Amino acid sequence: MALKFYNTMAKKKQVFRPLRKGEVRLYNCGPTVYDYAHIGNFRAYVFADILRRYIEWKGYRVLQVMNLTDVGHMTMDDVADSTGEDKIEKKAREEKKDPWQISSFYAGAFFEDIKKLNIKPAMAYPKATEHVKEMIKLAEKLIKNGHAYVSNNSVYFDVTSFPEYGKLSGNTLKNLKAGAGGRVEDNPDKRGPFDFALWVHNPRHTMQWDSPWGRGYPGWHIECSVMSIKMLGETLDIHTGGEDNIFPHHDCEIAQSEGATGKTFVRYWMHTRHLLVEGKKMSKSLGNFFTLRDLLKKGNDPTAIRYLLLSAHYRTKLNFTEKGLKAASNTLNKIRAFVQDMASHKPPGPVKGSRIDGIIRDTRENFEKAMDDDLGISDALSAIFSLITRVNRERDAGRLSREDAGKAYGFMIDIDRVLGLGLDELPMGSGVPDEIMLMANEREQLRKEKNFGEADKIRDAIKKKGFVVEDTPGGPMVRKAR
Ligand SMILES: [Zn+2]
Question: If you measure from the C-alpha of residue 30 to the centroid of ligand 1, how many angstroms do you get, rounded to a whole number?
Answer without folding.
Answer: 7
